[in-house]
Amino acid sequence: MSKKVILAIDRDNDLGRKAGIEGVIIGREDNLNAAIKLAENDPEDSDINTIFGAIKIYDELRNAGEDVEVVTITGDISVGVVSDSKIAEHLDYIASKIKPESVIVVTDGSEDEFVLPLISSRFKIDSVKRIIVKQSKTIEGTVYMLRKVLSDPKVVKNFFTPIGVTLIIYSIFVIADYPQYAIGGMIFLIGVYMILRAYELDIGIETFFSNLKTALLEGRISFVTYIISAILFTIGVIEGFYTFWKLTLQPVSPGLIALATSFIYGVIWYFTAGGISISLGKMLDAVIERKSYVKYLTISFLIVSAGLALWGGSVYILSNYENFSMGSEEAIRTFALSIFGSIFIAVIGMAPMKLRGESIKN
Q: Where are the transmembrane segments (predicted)?
């Protein structure tokens, strides 16, 4: 029984994987042999320095007359719950076999130090010594933090999604033999992504796929209508880009407002139909489950109302440019009728819900 243990940590089990030595390594001689064997198999492994560092501290305290022991414990390549469970078992073994009054923890960086709570819950920690090769003082911590951050599904999704889609867009333009538009398409996509993130519109996309999954698992009719709406949304985006594209081919540059409006003009009715498809599915689900469907009926009317207003506005703006199918006077009449029609449809749609005293939020 020793009063103090010099404890070296190998959380990811490099000793086991590379040198074939696992578990609890007790004693100076066994630790020295383990470090040498690991060095023979992988001389660049930082755990070699950790074990030698623990032996050095052991020798210093031993020469000073203290009652000490040096111990190395290993975890598992699956860093986290699995590795920490093994480390906890090894710590319990040390507590029962050596029964130290305190420990000095020796690690090779940030990753191993995540097990300090496991150690402090069992032993008094006198000191923590980090052994880092001088030429790479921050590499261990930096690499671990990067690995930890990139293992977070949310970070991976937010980081790699725009990069992946941007590369796909670039490849499509290059394969289609339009490399001159590739950079513009990439910048446009990044801009759209930033707007989605800024106004949290991406949450709506996540909700769409979450509802799609729920509808499938629960066997609802809305699953089919969600699929239909996804198809309509996709066709709408393609049509919107096609309308946008045609406007860019004009001899005179139409300007940013016209280009944005052309995209809206191309997508609006497909998006409207997609929204109605979702509402229709929800309505049928409510009827089958014998719940109130008035809310979804109202939402359908409001979607049509908004679509009509946006379509009328886009027609009016685009009528000022050449090659548009509608003249200015006709566009003004269309715009006016679309506004009145939009208001009328909205009022009709809201009436049943107001009469029943319901709310869209419910």
A: 155-175, 181-200, 221-245, 257-281, 293-319, 331-351
pLDDT given for residue 228 in this prediction: 95
- 340 and 229 fall within a common domain: yes
Is 349 in the same domain as 204?
A: yes
pLDDT tens digits along 46-55:
788 889 999 9
Q: Are residues 106 and 210 in the same domain?
A: no
CB 261 within 8 A of CB 314: yes
75-80 contacts, C-beta under 8 A, 24 or more apart: 75/9, 75/10, 75/11, 75/12, 75/13, 75/115, 76/12, 76/13, 77/12, 77/13, 77/17, 79/11, 79/12, 79/111
Question: What tokens were used for 137?
Answer: 């003082």
Which range, of 3-7, 192-196, 202-206, 266-270, averages the lowest pLDDT?
202-206
Q: Answer yes or no: is 223 within a domain.
A: yes
If asked whether residues 343 and 258 sit together in one domain, one would say: yes
96 and 230, same domain (yes or no): no
Task: Sheet with 4-10: list strands edge to edge.
Answer: 24-26, 68-74, 4-10, 102-107, 124-130
Range of the domain at 104: 4-146
Kindly tell me if the per-residue pLDDT of 146 is higher than 70: no
Which of 20-29, 204-213, 266-275, 282-291 is predicted with the least confidence, judged by mean pLDDT? 204-213
With a cut of 80, say whether residue 163 has pLDDT above it. Answer: yes
Cβ distance 127 to 107 under 8 Å?
no
